[in-house]
Predict the structure.
Amino acid sequence: MLCPFNRLLKDALKEHRAVGAFNVGNLEMLLGIIKAAEESQTPVILQIAEKRFTHSPLEYIAPMLHAAAMRAKIEVAVELDHGCSLFNVRRAMDLGFNTIMFDGSMYPVEKNISETRKIADETHARGVALEAEIGIVGGSEGGADLTANCASLSDIVALGSKSSCDALAIAIGNAHGHYKGIPKLNFDLLEKAHNTLPDLPFVLHGGTGISPADFRKAITLGIAKINIATANFDAIVTASMQYAEKSAPLSRNYFALNENMVEQVYNTTLAHIKIFNNQEPLDSIKF
Ligand SMILES: [Zn+2]
């Protein structure tokens, strides 16, 4: 069922776990994510970034995400990820998204606060939640290179306390896409931010490539939502390649490929959910 974003994140923060926010590019990804969430009886967030509308047009994918949320046996929120323009924020709300991530991270902090407030006023008037971002999470999603930049503590506190956001994505050494090396998260910064704003759920973008142990540590320090995009896009590609390799040309068909894709996304999503739920020992999770 469609569920308020704020309640999902507040519950997660209180229970020292994180809600997985999985980006969706097509139907196979959606089916795999919902299957993993229902089987583990865990709430999830379905999302799509504005930058991906070229490949997954909003008017087509939004009704699909919304329908999946309404029919799911678990609680689901539907988010516009990295919304950059008011035009697209309004389109997404018109199509039933119940949370918007507004990315004002390219602005100096004062302008980020004022722009985020403007968007938050508009989304809140329609009962839609608002996630903000501080510090630049680099990588392919933002069109930047893969260098990771940390936000300053004072900027985190300023945006977190003045922008009326419901959740805050913070740059602590994380990046979108594939990491060039082993990511080093700034846990000291995260801990200070969490101690200063203990009731504000923090969001970790660029989850693909972060180790299970680092996920768990981040969750103990206030991360209540973790975004996973690249891992499931990779799962779709891997499923396609494996299917092509293992099947004889004349036996190939779309429906078998579809099942392989769904299964690969399901496995990837389930592993992340188990890590984020923060209950099972890490060595028992196939990651
Ligand atoms: Zn992101």
